[in-house]
Each structure stands twice: as structure tokens, then as C-alpha cells.
Amino acid sequence: MDRYDSVESPTESTRSFIALVVLSQVFGLLAVVLTGVWLGKYWGGFSWTNASTVFNYHPLFMVLGLVFLYGDAILVYRVFRAYRKLPIKIVHALLHMLAFLFGVLGIKAVFDFHNALTIPNMYSLHSWLGITAIVVFGLQWVGGLIGFLVPQTPQSARSKLLPIHVTIGSFLYLLVIAVCISGITEKNFFSKAYPSLRTAEVIGNILGITLVIFGGLVFYLVQHPNYRRIDVISPERRALHE
Amino acid sequence: MDRYDSVESPTESTRSFIALVVLSQVFGLLAVVLTGVWLGKYWGGFSWTNASTVFNYHPLFMVLGLVFLYGDAILVYRVFRAYRKLPIKIVHALLHMLAFLFGVLGIKAVFDFHNALTIPNMYSLHSWLGITAIVVFGLQWVGGLIGFLVPQTPQSARSKLLPIHVTIGSFLYLLVIAVCISGITEKNFFSKAYPSLRTAEVIGNILGITLVIFGGLVFYLVQHPNYRRIDVISPERRALHE
């Protein structure tokens, strides 16, 4: 028995699904572009060799990797919900790997910046939660690989792991967005213009709102029972694909 | 067909359920106590008549109302998962009403503080997201009342609203925690001690971690299929209770 009874017709449901997926991509890309403009135009641009602007890669890589790619890695299970699972799993794992690599580069950028300017590392709540998030992200990835892509893992273990993997993954995703909000808050406070709002602070605030909307759309698409996977394969053949 | 097949035995599942509920309450109460100690001992205590400390009611009421009571209002559907629905709905609505009242008082505290010290209102990302969260919270409450407690609402409308109410409610809950994290970040930056960590900043950071753990436990208990409602009433009698 499903958690809810669906009362929407399949057509209605498909139409709202496509609209929400498109909208999610608009807000996801908007977040990446806003981050680029914010740091590129208002905070001095990007450079690995300039100690004062190397920091700018930090928010860019986090938004690109740990928000946009992470969100889309989740969404592949909805967007391709009528397709067989194995290729989707591989895309999910690859997007997450890319997200993780951006996350590591993003951490490198902020440590390089702090070390060059002899600013202490790891003092803020943002850094405590952020480092926890990336560690849990890495563990989730390894857990997902062993649990769902290694063929030897028995079906009973997979069934037990699946709701845990999905729940931790969804929570972690929203935690990453929360960490971004605290990071934007820090950046806006560092500007010393606050409480005055210049263009830079307004863009920071709008970026935060955009991230929340993107996160909300991904969460809604993943949670709503109407958008769940459609099993097109008979149970007998499913074993071959899972 | 359920989203996942449960492979845990009912006893295993009940044991882990009780442990997680107890743990959630420990972290929820710890968050409230930490907030009280943080502001009471390190930030000057509580008073509605003292312009410089009236602010301290803001985080206290937000953590007590919009995190702790909001979380427990969600959890009643799990803790009393084997009981009939109507009394649970009423407790859910009452706890949310209380949470909302604390939220409004919390907003009043920060506006009183800003106005007394002629600090501008509503400039930060924290305030933009916070005010949005409380407005959506109010709308969710009214929507829930009309959708699930007014007896005239037809069953088809309820079924359509339920997943939307649950998804928006869960997302909003985690958004509120994200807003708290940005609020703690602001408070820690206002101290001017950062990047040095005094006891006050360490407690702020630990409070943030505690809120995330509480939120994570509530989210896990709500999401995991093993902990869903157990329907003890026959479908014929259910109509009388829903």
C-alpha cells in the first residue's frame, strides 16, 4: 500500500512534473550564474594565483558541485523514472563523484585563501557543518557504491539500505543548502557594508533565495508520490537490471 | 505497493524507533537549554524592557517554537502511529499554533530591538528567509485546518493535499533550521571575537550542530518507511476518524 492515494490523472501529473523539472533547472542554473556574477563582478574575479581572490572559487565550486550537480544527481531518478535502473544508477554515481570533486576543490580554495592570508581555519559554524557535510557525502557515496552497484551485495541488504541512503542523501542535500546560506551570510558580513545593501549584498541575498527555491523544487520532485519511479519491467526481469 | 520493502522485523523496527524518538527529544531539549544558557549567561540575559537584551528572546523563541515544538508537532504522527488520527491531528494543529505564536513573539523581539537601537530591519538573508518561512508556516497552518480538520472537505481534496502538505511542511521545517544556522552565524559575527573562539562562540557553534542533529532525527523518523503510521482501524470505520 502506498503512503498516499494518488488522485491526479497521469496526464495532469506528467504535465506538472515536466513544468517543475524545467523550473528546477532554471533556478539551478540561475544559482550558478548568480554565483559567478557575484564573485566575478563584485568580489574581484577568479584566480588560483592571487591570494586575495582565490577564495572566490570556494562558493562557485560549492554551488556548482554540491548544490547544482548534487540536485541533478538526485533528480535523474525522477527524470528517467520510466527507464531501467542500472544506467540511471551509474549517472547518479558519476554526477555525485563530480559534485564531490568540486566540493574538494572548493575546500582547497578556502584553505589556500586562509593560509595565504594567515586567517585561522575551521572556526565558524559554517566550516564545522560544511566539513561534516563533505565527509558524510563521501561516506554516502562509498556506501551507495557498495550497496547498489557492487553486484555481489544481496537484495535483502539493498532493501534495508535504500531508505537509509535516500533519507540521509535528501537530508544532507538540504544541509548543504543550509551551509551555503550561512556562507553567504558570512560573505555579506565581511563586506562591512551591512546593514546597508549595495548591489553585492543584494545579489548575495538573492542567491540564497535562489538556492532555497532550487532545493525546494528538487525536494518536492523527489518527495511527491506522483513523481515516483514507474516500474516498466516485470519483477522477473528486474533482477537483471538492479 | 510501498516505495520500499521493509526487511526489518517489527521488534527490531520498534526498538530502533523508540531509541531514535528518545534521542530526538534529548537533542531537542538540549537545543532549547543551550539557547537559554548562550543568551542568558553569555549575552546579557532576557528582558522585554531592556533595549539591548530584548533581542535575546528572538533566538530563544525561535528555537523553542519553530524548531522544538515544530519538530514535535511533526513527530506526533510517528509517536502515536498506532492510534486513531483525529486526536493526533488536533495535537499537531495545537503544537503548530503554539510554535507559530512563539515565532511571532520572536519576530517582535528582534523588531523591538532594532527599532530601539535604530538598526535597520530586514536587510540580511537571514531576515528575508525567516520572514518568508513564517508566512509560509501560517499559510500551511490555515491550509491544514481547512484541508484536514474541517469535516466538509471532501476526501478527494484531502488525498490531493496530503502529500503537498507533508512535503512543504518537511521542507519548511528544514528551512527553519537553515535560517537558525544563518542567525547563529550572524550572532557569532556580531561578537567581533571571531575568528577567535570564546565560550560564547563555541556554544553558538554547538547549538547549530545540535539543531542539525535534532532536525536530522525528526526527518529520519518521518521519512523512514518502517516508522510510518500503522492503520489499526478497518477502512469502514476509518471514515469516522479522519
From TrEMBL, chains A, B:
Location(s) in or outside the cell: Membrane
GO MF annotations, alphabetized: metal ion binding; oxidoreductase activity
Any one Pfam family match given in the protein's UniProt record, by short name: Cytochrom_B561
Required cofactor(s): heme b
Keyword Membrane: yes
Domain of life, source organism: Eukaryota
Membrane topology: Multi-pass membrane protein
Transmembrane segments: 17-40, 60-80, 92-111, 131-150, 162-184, 204-222
Name of this protein: Cytochrome b561 domain-containing protein
Organism: Trichobilharzia regenti (Nasal bird schistosome)
